[in-house]
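Hello K.,

You asked for the raw outputs rather than the summary table, so here they are, unedited. I folded two proteins back to back in the same session to keep the settings identical. This is the first:
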Amino acid sequence: MMTIITRVKLKQGSEPEWDAAMRERLENAEQREGWISGHLLMPLEGQDERVIVGVWRTRADWEAWHADEAFAGTRERLDASRRCRARRRGTTSCTRGPGLRSDACHTTRS
C-alpha cells in the first residue's frame, strides 16, 4: 500500500474553486485501478492551506493515475489557485509492505 500526502497553499479567495476541482479529481480517482481512499483536509490554522491524502494499492497504480486524462483535466484549475508553485512543500509517499512494522516514507520537493 502507498499513501501520498500533499500540502498546498492557495491564493486568497480561490479556495472554493480549488476545492471543487480537487473533489472532481478525487471522484475520478475512485474509478481507477488500485485506488483505496482519499481525504481532503484543511488545517484549522490555515484556511488557505489544504492537505490531500491519497492511498493507493501500489506506486505503479498512483503513477498510472498521473497519465489519466481526468487527472490532467483538473491540473490547470488546481495550479491556477495555488499561491506560488515554487513554494510547494512537496509530496510525501509512504509504503507499507508485508512484514513491515511501520511506513517507509519518501518526500519529493518541487
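The second followed immediately with the same parameters:
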Amino acid sequence: MLGAESAADMTLLGIGIDIFDNAGLSYAQVTDVALDVVLQSGRSNETVVNLIWDNLVVGPIPQDLLNQLTGDLARGAFSQVELAVVASELVQELGVVDLDQLTLVGVEYTPVA
C-alpha cells in the first residue's frame, strides 16, 4: 500500500506489526485503515486504483483500464478494500516479496512503545 520505499521504514513496519498483533483487526480492516492513512481526504475510487497500480506496475495506468476499474467500484462490483486485498494477494503470488526468505531471516522493525 505504501510502496517499496516504505518497506525500509522500521518505525512504520513496527506500527504495522503492532496493528496485526494487537488491534484485533482483520486483514480487510487493516487494509481499509491503510487506504485512509495513505490517501487521507483524497480517497476516491480513482486514487485507490492509481495507488494500487503504482505499487504493482511501472508506468501510468491505461485510461480505459482506469475507467473500467473505477466504474466497477462505483457500481459495487467490488469495494476499494476488496481490490486492494486482491492486489496484495497478487503481489504474494508473483513473488514480489520473497515470503519464504522473510520467514527465515525476519524483518527489522522498531517496536511500538
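The two ends are 24 Å apart (CA to CA).

Happy to rerun anything if the numbers look odd on your end.

Regards,
P.
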